[in-house]
Amino acid sequence: MTVSTLPAYPARSARLKRISAEYPHALGLLLLAPMLSWIAVFFIFPTAWMIWQSFSERGLQPYATILTSAIYLKVLLTTLKICVITTVGCLILGYPVAYVLTTARPSTRAVLLILVVLPYWLDFIVRSYSWMILLGRHGLINQLVTGLGISSTSLPLLYNLFSVSIGMIQILLPLTILTLFSTMVRIDRRLVDAATIHGASPWRAFRTVFLPLSLPGVYAACLLLFVSALGFYVTPALLGGPEQTMISQTIMVIASDLLDWPLASAAGVLLLVVTTSLLVLYSRFFRLDRMLGGMAR
Amino acid sequence: MSVAALSAADDAARTSDAPRPDAGVEVRLERLSKSFGSVTAVDNVNLTIPAGAFVTLLGPSGSGKTTTLNLIAGFLAPDAGNIAFDGRPVASVPPHRRNIGMVFQSYALFPHMTVFDNVAYPLRMRNRLAREALTIRVGESLELVGLTKLEARYPRQLSGGQQQRVAMARALVSRPRLLLMDEPLGALDKKLRERLQGEIKDIHRRIGSTFVYVTHDQTEALTMSDLVVVMRDSRIVQVGSPRSVYEAPVDAFVADFLGGANLLPGEVMANERDAYAVRIANGRMISVPQTGASHAPGSKVLVFIRPEDVKISHSEEMVGNVVTTAAVVREVLFLGESFKVTAMVGPHPVVLRAPRVQAEGIEIGGHVMLAWPPERSRALAAPTGSVSP
Q: Do both A187 and A288 map to the same domain?
C-alpha cells in the first residue's frame, strides 16, 4: 500500500528518489517517527516496565494473591457489573438520539451534534462534582423531593451503584451517540422506503431493516464503552461508596497506600489482559475492522 | 385508445396466461402540487393513468418526474391536489397499505438478506403464507424475471443486472396492481439495458398490472410505453402514445427531447385550407400541415422535421408529394448502417440520415436538394428569445 502510493509524491531530488527506491518505507517511517517515539517512551516502555515489575520480585505470587483473594475478586466482579450497566444504559439512551440525528435535517443535525459533543469537552471531575450537587443528601433533587412533600426523608441517591452508573453513563454517552451515528448515517434510507412500500409498517421497517443494519455500530459501541468503562477511576471514586470500588481504584490503593508495587503491577497487567482479550475476541466475532473502517452493508 | 395500447392488448390476449382484467389499478392525479422550500417540484399536474397501462414519465433531471412517483408511492404528501386509485382517494393511506410494488434506481435491495429473503419480504409483510406457499411464490417471481438458483446469495454477490432482476422479483412477488419504477435500468450498460427493456415489457404483458416508469432516456420511453408523459420544469408538457409524441410534438422542447429534431425557423405567410405557407431562411416557401396550435400569418414558427424523414438528392427531380429546398452539405459522418449528413439551409443546419446508396457522391460543400413529405412536418411556436436548434 505504502509502496504504491509513493510515486504520487514527486521526489524533488535524484537523491531522494534513490533513497525512496532503496527503502520504500522510508518516507512513511520518517513521518511516523515522532508519534512512534512518543508511544515508545510514554506507553510501551512503562507497560513493559510494569509487566517486568509484576514478576521480578516475587514471581507469580502477586498474581496468586489477586486471583485467590475474595476482596480482589469482588472488586473485579463489581467492575464488570458497573461496566455492563453503563454499556447497556448508554446504548438504551444513545440509540434513539443517534437515530434522530440521522433523520434530522442538516441544520438541525448540526445543532444536535454540538449539544451531544458539548459535555464531552467538559472535564470528568467537573461533571462528577455536578452530579454530587444534584444527588447529595441536601442536593437539588432531595430538596425538591422533601420540599414538595413527596418523601419525608431524603432519598439515598449518592454514593451507591445508582450514582456511579448515572455518572459514567453521562460521561460515555457522547461517545456512544457518535459511534452509533457514524454507522447509522451510512445506512441507505431508500432501504427503509423499500421496506415500507412493500408492506412493512414503520415499526416493522425499522425492526427488519434499519435495526439489523445498525447492529455493527451497536457492537462497536458496546466494545468501546465496555473497555472505556473498565478503566474508570475518578467517577466511581467521587460518586460511589465502598461497595462500588472499581479495579482502577484498587490498583491506586495498592500502589500509593500499601506501596506494594508488584501487586499493583500484577493487577494492572490482569486488567490489560482482560481488555486485550476482549478486543481480540470481539474482532474475531464481529469483524471489528469493518465496523470501525466504515462498513454499513 | 392509442394504437400502441391496442396492439399491446392484442398481444396480451394471444398469450396463454392472459392477465385478469382487473390486474391493474387506474391512477388519477388531480391538480397535484409539491414544493420543497421555495423550489416547486411538481406544479399542478393532472394525469389519468389507465388501468393496466405502461406509462412512462419522461423528462430531464429536475423535471418533477421522480417527485411525482414519490407522491404516488406516498413517500411524500402533496401540498395540494388529489391522488386516487380506482377513484378512491389515497391521501390518508400510508405507503405500506397502498399495495404497490416498486423498483428503485439503486435497487435498494436489503444487504443483510439473501435473494430469497429479499423477494419473500413483501409476502412476509403483507400476506400470511405457509412456508411452502411462500417458497412457491418466491420461486415463481424469480422465474418471472429469469433468475433462478441464486436464492442463497446476498445482493453484494450479484452483478448489476442480477440485482435489477431481484429488485423486479421483489416488487412483483405480492402481485401488486401498481408497479412503480424509478429509472430502474439507469445503472446498467447499453446492451443489458436493451435486453431488460424487452423483458420488462414482456412481464407487463403477462401480469397486466399498471406500470409507472420514470426515465430520462427517450428511447426507453418510446420502446416500452403505451403512454408517454413528457415533463419539464415541474409540469406535464405532453401526454400521448409514443408515436404521437415523437411525430407530433407540441413544442420545440418535446421535439428535441424525444430524439434528433430539425427545427427550421420561419415565418407564417399565409393560411391555405389545411396548410400553412411558411417562408424559411433561404427564402423558400414550404407547406406545413395545420395541426395542433394555430399560428396567425406573420408569426414566427419553427418547422419541425425528423432526420429520418428527410431525403437527399443531387437533382431537382423529386418523386411524389414532397417539400423541397436547396442546401449545402457541411458534414458527412459514417455511422455504419447509414451516413449522418448535415446540410445548411441558409444559416440553419438540417440533419438527416442517408442510407449508404443514397449517400453516393455527396461531398462536403456540394449543392444538394432536401425533400420531405409535408405531413411529417409540424409548425411549432418559436420560443421567445434565441433558439438553438
A: yes
